[in-house]
Design a protein that fits this description.
The chain is built from 5 helices and 9 strands. By secondary structure, the protein is of the alpha+beta class. β2 and β3 form a beta hairpin. The radius of gyration is 17 Å and the shape is elongated. Bound molecules: zinc ion.
Length: about 140
């Protein structure tokens, strides 16, 4: 059964959700295809936050745009692989950025990609017994 997300235009082909513009344009014309929220938009709607990343340090003062671009690129790439992995909320803090994600793997990935791109210090804490991850990255 095919479906599509009325919010982000993701399509469900009967097996998995993904982004396929051609398929989307084809199925929205069919009368018997249902729309609804994809797993990603549903997680955002229900405020299902599974991870938080804190990015901080003096390094960011001169590299703010690079850092923001990196976050956006990682989030976009990950969303295309897994529609449920989203940045729920991102805000600037006094020391850098705080990024809440609907997916633990996305939070972990942001930390790892920061370490790979800019070195710095990475700390990943899996909260025991909970499906929540805290990721801290810092560079002065
Ligand atoms: Zn969606």
């Amino acid at each position: 059964m095919m479906k599509f997300c009325s919010n982000c235009n993701a399509v469900f082909d009967g097996h998995k959700w993904g982004y396929d513009k051609g398929l989307y344009e084809k199925i929205i014309k069919k009368e018997d295809v249902k729309s609804g929220l994809c797993p990603g938009c549903e997680r955002v709607e229900k405020k299902m936050v599974d991870g938080v990343v804190l990015i901080k340090g003096d390094f960011l003062k001169d590299h703010k745009d690079e850092a923001l671009n990196l976050i956006h690129n990682i989030a976009e790439k990950k969303r295309k692989k897994n529609v449920a992995a989203r940045v729920f909320k991102m805000r600037e803090t006094s020391e850098g950025f705080s990024i809440e994600t609907t997916d633990q793997a996305l939070a972990e990935l942001i930390g790892k990609e920061f370490e790979r791109a800019f070195s710095g210090k990475l700390d990943i804490q899996w909260l025991e017994g909970e499906s929540f991850v805290r990721v801290n990255w810092e560079r002065d």
